[in-house]
Task: structure prediction
Amino acid sequence: MRALIVDDDFYSRSFLEYILHPYARCDAAVNGEDAIMAFKKALEAGEPYTLIFMDLLMPVIDGPRALKEIREIESDFGIADGVGCKIVITSVLEDGEDTHNAMYLGGATSFLQKPVDENSILAELTRLGCITPGSGEKEGARGKTL
Result:
């Protein structure tokens, strides 16, 4: 699996990479513009991302706009709705308009409220079919929180 972590906060990116490392080859982007470029480049290279973790509040291009553009790129590449990259939104926002728009208008796959912990991330990845329980397990790593 190949994953892209998009967050302007260094700690958040590092935490997610630490959690995902046993399961995926991870790349990182600090804003939506970088994420869009990385996503398109990966598709063009024939090595698409299967998973993206994306914050909503970022500089340059925010999460909702980046999400919309990523879904448009998938469409341009002939990838049908629902079979493209799984995009998990991570945000401190609870029930705001941006969260609603990302989930229901932007095509996000799921949403995790920050602070997220390792168990909730792994449970969501299992629910999405990205990992199977116990695969890539890291000894002593459970319980960490972002």
User: Anything to note?
Assistant: Confidence is low (pLDDT under 50) at residues 137-145. The first strand starts at residue 2 and ends at 6.
